[in-house]
Amino acid sequence: MNILVVSDFFPPLNSAGAEKITKILVEKFSKKNKVYLISTNSHIPHGEVRKKSLNGYTHFQIGYKPPKRFQKYLGFYNSMLMKTISQIIDNYSFDVANVHNIHNVISYGVISLLKSKGIKTFFTAHDAVSLCYGKYSNGVMLNSKFEYPNVEYKLDHFQIFKKNWRRLIPFRFYYLRKVLRGVDKIICVSCELEKLFNANKINNTIVIHNGIELKNYSLDLQRKSIKNKLKFDSSTRLILFAARISKEKGLNEALNLIEKINQSNANIKLLCVGLDKKIKNQQNVISYSWLSDQNMEDLLNIVDLTIVPSIYLDPFPTIILESMRFGVPVVVSSYSGGKEAVIDGETGYHVNPFNVNQFSEKCLNLLTDEKLNMTFSKNSISLFKKKYVAELFAEKYLKVFNNEKLL
Q: Is residue 90 situated within a structural domain?
């Protein structure tokens, strides 16, 4: 099968969650198929196309520096890139196209282009951008204390207008809904994200949870060595909060949590990874900017718990899978699609991050009960190997491409 993958960006130029997942798929597809990749690169001359053969696939990089002034419109439809991509497509024969994040540069116009050339097209929805400009928080019941608070999946276009009026494109949603209805299948990374699409009359969807590469969990001796290297006392309990940190990702809720926890136990620290600047006046908070993959693995080898306190419909945070493969229990927000990867009471807990009492109680269970933490740790590794290894989710994609049913 000849597979074309399209993505605005690609590692190592951009290594955010969606780009990492795209890279894994490209590498797995290329083991048994002929794979071509199209992405953009702002570091090569504008309009130039560079072709490279890498690890069994062919990568076309298009030089492009989007003008910031018009970027919101170019993400909607980019005529210059459509012409270049059309020329690449015409020189090859593709059976299937898998489109990933294309809302920043390449644009949704590529979907219409692929369909016009008779190529079976599958769109992977990593987030809600194609529906509502960014993170979907308008339907979230903020400050609710219920364990599983209500989420309104039907878009409120008036609220979207109020929040995004400076960058609003008239009829954007209705045009994109028509485009997305035309793809052969929209692959949603979580059931929560699929509910959002379905509630807004986009029903050609299927759910495939992401997967990542399997890696071995370190021995206790290695953990001690890493802890010493990073200058953490052996008795200090560590909570990890790693994200492109923002209000929606639950930064305030994470800080409220550590403040509550340390009212009774001062030997617990919160490690915040992804901050642009350090958090001031927080004695038990250690903040980092983005870390290399190796440094993240070092942290995952020594932390006792990962928290994902998102207060929006967070589709499927990759940090959950990264934690599971190293045997780190996860306490995840009930607003997040990530709860689908966490078995409540077996590999971690589901919590409402606004309920700081419940949140702190669940975390303290895992931080103070070493036997319970170990049980959850083993369960997490077992579940990861069973359901979230990269090869397994890539096989599901290929089945969908071939119109085979998923079990």
A: yes
d(CA 75, CA 261): 44
Residue 185 and residue 250 in one domain:
no
Task: Residue 154: give its domain's CATH number.
Answer: 3.40.50.2000
Are 381 and 263 contained in the same domain?
Answer: yes
Are residues 187 and 41 located together in one domain of the fold?
Answer: yes
Instruction: Give just the sign of the alpha carbon dihedral 328, 334, 335, 340.
Output: positive
Question: What span, in angstroms and rounded, lies between the C-alpha atoms of 14 and 12?
Answer: 5
pLDDT tens for the 407 residues of the chain, in order: 999 999 999 988 887 889 999 999 999 999 999 999 999 998 999 889 999 988 789 999 999 887 766 666 777 888 889 999 999 999 999 999 999 999 989 999 999 999 999 999 999 999 999 998 888 887 777 777 777 778 888 988 887 777 776 767 778 888 899 999 999 999 999 999 999 999 999 999 999 999 999 876 555 556 666 666 667 777 889 999 998 778 899 999 999 999 999 887 778 999 999 876 667 667 788 888 877 778 888 889 889 999 999 999 999 999 999 999 999 999 999 999 999 999 999 999 999 999 999 999 999 999 999 999 999 999 999 999 999 999 999 999 999 999 887 76
Domain count, the chain: 2
Q: Which residues partner with 97 through β-bridges?
A: 4, 121
In a domain, 372, yes or no: yes
What's the CA gap between 19 and 278, in Å, rounded?
26
Q: Which domain holds residue 199?
A: 2-212+390-401
Amino acid identity for residue 222 in this structure: Q
Is 64 strand, coil or helix?
coil
Mark whether 162 and 292 lie in a shared domain.
Answer: no
Q: Is the dihedral of CA 227, 272, 249, 103 positive or negative?
A: negative
Contact between residue 206 and residue 397 where contact means Cβ atoms under 8 Å apart? no
**Has residue 406 been placed in a domain?**
no
Closest CA to 302 of 388, 364, 384, 234: 234
What are phi and psi for residue 326, nearest 5 degrees? -100, 10
Q: Which H helix or E strand runs over 29? A: helix 17-29
End-to-end CA distance of the chain: 22
Contact predicate 301/287, CB 8 Å: no
Using CA atoms, how far apart are residues 242 and 169, in angstroms rounded to an integer?
33
